[in-house]
Specification:
The protein is an all-alpha fold. It has a domain of about 100 residues. The protein is about 70% helix and about 0% strand. It is built from six helices and no strands. It is elongated and about 55 Å long.
Length: about 150
């Protein structure tokens, strides 16, 4: 019968040890600090859009774009809509950021088609015009020069 008594005694000792280890010896005080972060939305916008904007500008400057030119512009632009939507924006700009992300996605889709058929007839010109208008609106929202 002795082993049966040892097991409950060991369990009680283990539980007591766990309880005492889990609780701090004396109460501690946690002081919360408040940190205010100011976001410069204009700088954030320019930082997010710079690689895609540069690639699209180079693409537009090409007289006869090759599949590599299309691929380069598409690669630089493909994550931009997601980055725009995941960032924090002022309330006034949020709907316009959503429209910009949508317009940029259309241009990315056009670029994907042009990769396979650079001379193909796509809606690229139309979609790029919509994108340009959306960019002007967002820049105005963020008080950036247009």
């Amino acid at each position: 019968m002795r082993p049966a008594r040892v097991l409950p005694a060991l369990l009680l000792a283990a539980v007591a040890a766990c309880k005492s280890a889990a609780l701090p010896a004396e109460p501690s005080t946690v002081t919360a600090s408040t940190t205010t972060t100011t976001i410069d939305y204009g700088v954030q916008y320019l930082t997010i859009t710079a690689p895609a904007t540069d690639a699209l500008t180079r693409f537009d400057g090409t007289a006869s774009p090759t599949p590599a030119d299309c691929q380069s512009a598409e690669s630089a632009s493909e994550t931009l809509p997601y980055q725009l939507l995941q960032a924090s924006w002022p309330a006034k700009a949020r709907p316009d950021i959503g429209a910009l992300a949508s317009d940029w996605s259309a241009v990315v889709a056009d670029l994907r088609l042009l990769v396979f058929n650079p001379a193909g007839d796509t809606a690229f010109g139309f979609d790029e015009s919509k994108l340009s208008a959306a960019v002007r609106i967002v820049k105005s929202d963020l008080r950036l020069p247009t």
